[in-house]
Amino acid sequence: MEILENFVLKSYNTFGIPAKARFFIHIQTTEELQELINTPVFKQNERLILGGGSNLLFTQDFDGLVVKTAQKGIVLVKEDAQHFYVKVQAGENWHQFVLRTVEEGWQGLENLSLIPGTVGAAPIQNIGAYGVEVEQFIFEVNAIDLQSGALRTFAASECKFAYRNSVFKQELKGKYLISEVTFRLNKLPKFNLTYAALNQYLEAQNIVLPTQKAISEAVINIRSSKLPNPEEIGNCGSFFKNPVVEEAVFKRVLSENTNMPYYSAGEGFYKIPAGWLIEQCGFKGKVFGNVGTYSKQALVLVNCGNATGKEAWDFANKIIDTVADRFGISLEPEVNII
Ligand SMILES: Cc1cc2nc3c(=O)[nH]c(=O)nc-3n(C[C@H](O)[C@H](O)[C@H](O)COP(=O)(O)OP(=O)(O)OC[C@H]3O[C@@H](n4cnc5c(N)ncnc54)[C@H](O)[C@@H]3O)c2cc1C
Predict the structure, then answer these.
(1) Per the domain annotation, does 250 fall within a domain?
(2) Burial of 19 (0-12, 13-18, 19+ CB in 10 A)
(3) Whose CA is nearest to atom 11 of ligand 1?
């Protein structure tokens, strides 16, 4: 078990922030983690569990221990008439796992193709895209209690999944390391084509009866045309959540902006695209020093060069303040601010 010191995290976060971790360790197995939990460096320091670093922003150096999940393995553990149950180690790359499900005909996750990050982080914010949220396919989650080292299994119902949220982002934040996720995937096709852009793309390709592979490829192509590739332009995807507002707020803003896009978010609540709000404030494609927003999507903050975490966070706050002044709506970061 090798603990590194003053470790530069630039290539460990997709925004490309050159923050340093005081201590850093790669964890390959559950046993290694259980051993680490008993060491003084683990007990005496603040800890951060790191997957692919695609949903966090280092605003400064991390004066503690970064534990990088690197456990690998994908196993079909059982099947019944309708489902495959597949157990996956936390350190597996999410997109590579989705491609494997497509290859094997384990169906359901194809709409979630090309989302960066690791399998272990997927339940944390209940990743979602193109009409699907991962909670629909999670059977159970195995996690290690970071105090005692004990293994606990969470049934999907105990994970309290919600829009970009779960128990692991709320009351259990920082208390567990997710070590394995078991997915329940479909044997028969039950494709989700509810998302307009996906449907339109398939129609334009004259695909009438799409296969799992066709859907995965469509999602990959649409995403590639809309979102910056973190390997080319540093970013952490959607920086803010889409705000959900009460009817009174919604009606006031709509009366002043009749072209505003929105979605119903349950009785008396409306979801407004954060990207639209940011764009209306003139930020789309604008660069301020080393940071800016992506030219095709104002919701994505980008590293235009050698951004520091502080610069990126100051810019995010400038957006939050401008949107609040103009619309009276508070934007909340979707990414984890460290
Ligand atoms: C270009 C781009 C597009 C994106 N598109 C989407 C999208 O469409 N939908 C979507 O939902 N998200 C999207 N994201 C966000 C991101 O991909 C997901 O949130 C992903 O699940 C993060 O995984 P990660 O391994 O990189 O997590 P990290 O960024 O490393 O960590 C995120 C949080 O989870 C914690 N964590 C990580 N692993 C574990 C673990 N094993 N146990 C306990 N805690 C852990 C970390 O401490 C941190 O708080 C996008 C990001 C980018 C850069």
Answers:
(1) no
(2) buried
(3) 127
Ligand 1: which of 9, 29, 55, 113 to mutate, judged by most atoms within 8 Å of the beta carbon?
55
Give 213-261 pLDDT, tens digit per residue: 999 999 999 999 999 999 999 999 999 999 999 999 999 999 999 999 9
Domain assignment present for 194: yes
CB-based pocket (< 6 A), ligand 1: 14, 48-56, 69, 90, 115-118, 120-122, 124-125, 127-129, 177-178, 227, 230, 235-237, 336
Q: What is the pLDDT of residue 163?
A: 87
Q: What is the mean pLDDT of residues 299-316?
A: 96
Q: Pick the catalytic residue: 164, 166, 179, 180?
A: 164
> 252 in a domain, yes or no?
no
295 in catalytic set? no
Are residue 216 and residue 238 in the same domain, yes or no?
no
Q: Is 216 a catalytic residue?
A: no
- Is pLDDT above 90 for 204? yes
With respect to residue 282, please indicate whether it lies within any of the assigned structural domains. yes
Whole-number Å distance, alpha carbon 127 to ligand 1 midpoint, is 8
pLDDT digits (tens, 9 = 90+) for 1-27: 799 999 999 999 999 999 999 999 999
Q: Is 238 a catalytic residue?
A: yes
Task: Look at the chain and report how many structural domains it folds into.
Answer: 3
The answer on 290 and 160 residing in a single domain is: no
CATH code, domain with 208? 3.30.465.10
